[in-house]
Amino acid sequence: MMTITRSEVLLKEARFYAFHGVMSQERKVGAEYTVSVTVGYDYAKAAESDTVDDTLNYAELYELVKAEMMQPSQLLEHVALRIGKAIFQKWTEAAYADIQLIKNNPPMGAACAGAGVNLHLTNDKTKQC
Questions:
Q1: Residue 56: count of CB within 10 angstroms of its CB
Q2: Would 11 disulfide with which of 24, 37, 52, 102, CB 3.0-4.6 Å?
Q3: Could you give phi then psi for residue 78, rounded to 5 degrees?
Q4: Buried b (16+ CB within 10 A) or exposed e, 12-33
Q5: How far apart are alpha carbons 15 and 9 in whole angstroms?
Q6: How far apart are CA 89 and CA 55, in angstroms?
Q7: Could you tell me which residues come within 8 angstroms of residue 103 by beta carbon, excluding any fewer than 6 positions away?
Q8: Which are the catalytic amino acids?
Q9: 33: closest CA among 116, 103, 106, 115?
Q10: CA atoms within 13 A on the CB side of 55
Q11: pLDDT digits (tens, 9 = 90+) for 17-55
């Protein structure tokens, strides 16, 4: 006998060209972004049934993230929160969401692979962590 104690659906390093930034030039020219999302989701039923309808479909997760990335914002924090809200609205049984949003080559005069935000959200409806 075994018990699944934790299950997650992942979207790792999805790449987008989007128009976020505080400076107006950033919102005109755009930049490359990388988004990773981990969603706490009980997919025990899907693991047994082998049916996509019993899980959080990662292709649908990608489309949700893509839709939020295409809406320009000044702050990455705002985009990350919108992604989290959209996840919990679509999949109300999701326990938590971890969202990492990185602007590749940020315009700040520093040599770095990227700069961005990490956001951990817990769905209060599930009372899980």
A1: 21
A2: 37
A3: -65, -45
A4: eebebebbbbeeeebbeeebeb
A5: 18
A6: 15
A7: 20, 21, 31, 32, 33, 76, 114, 115, 116
A8: 103
A9: 103
A10: 19
A11: 999 999 888 889 999 999 999 999 999 999 999 999 999
